[in-house]
Amino acid sequence: MARRGDFQAFKENLSFLAFLDKWNAFHTMKCVQTDLQNIFAIESLTTMHDYESVMAKGHGIPLLHSGKWGPSLVYWTTPISRRATQWSIIGETDLAHNASAFPIEGVCLAFLGMEEYPGRTTTFLPDSKSQYLVPGNDAAFALPPSEASQYRLVHGTSINDHPLAFYDPVQSTEGGIAVPVLFCLKLSPPIAATAAVGKAIAALVGIEGATDPMIEHESAAGDLVYASMEELLTRSATARKGIPLTSLKFKSKFEDQVQSYVFSADSDVPAIVIQKIPIAHPAQILPVLNFAHSYPTPKHHQILRKHLAFNALFRSCFNPFTLAIAESER
After folding, report:
1. Is 63 helix (H, G, I), strand (E, B) or coil?
2. Where are the domains of the chain?
3. Poorest-confidence range of 81-90, 113-122, 210-219, 276-285?
4. Which residues contact 85 (CB under 8 A, 6 or more apart)?
5. ∠ CA(64), CA(82), CA(34), 5° rounding?
6. What is the pTM of this model?
7. Residues 240-254: tens digit of each pLDDT
8. Is 97 helix (H, G, I), strand (E, B) or coil?
9. DSSP alpha helices (H): ranges in the chain?
């Protein structure tokens, strides 16, 4: 990474490695990496290796050390990027190689990391366990008496509602120490979403309100605490032109047709930019990506991914190339 001249990413990676060393969390990150690889194999098998479905409806396509140290997931792409993806070269063993299958633009990643989080604690797995996922993924698995006081079982689902079972260590686990750290999904790029969705995700992962700094970033430009959904999605179009955010007209050409769209800045739908989401346990990854109101029941609403689809469609209509700035065009 330093060879490519990306010194900021290099510094961030060094900082994260120092963080893992401070909390003795390298084993935990390895456990999560193993989980993602095994879940990917399960979802690949249940979809007959339909990797596009795994990306769009499951846990996503796992990568390793792609831009940041550690595991990450490709969980959505734009339609153009989806067509450009080389699905045939994706594999289930060499996760570091999977990044080469995707184009540079139009790919949404969720990096799995950790951050200190005052007031919340996580108990890591002891060295005797190599993954959170129950070996063999036996949904009927019951803890043996020797482990009943050391672990709870967390039940979740994968794609096609395939059941999953995870270990959840308690503080009395041999070698288990509760530390003020939470897992964290860092979204690249950040997602513009309605404030209502932000609050619902906050409730899903068990944090207080959408104003929690771990789930909310002020805005794409950093100068708005809240903005309307339309304002966030059109800021790049209007900022380049130096035009105030008022009612504007946009024109898109499709073959021999010209379609006009009118944007109104008076929307009363508040929005935020979601940059990172804390999670208490790896079992929450799929519910967050699919944003299941009814978790842990197997009904997923795909709202987070639907927001990305809506954002992409909206920006295809309202962007710097379609903005009509001449008075005669308005």
Report:
1. strand
2. 7-197
3. 210-219
4. 52, 77, 101, 102, 103
5. 25
6. 0.81
7. 555 555 555 666 665
8. helix
9. 7-22, 26-46, 51-57, 79-84, 195-205, 229-241, 285-290, 303-317
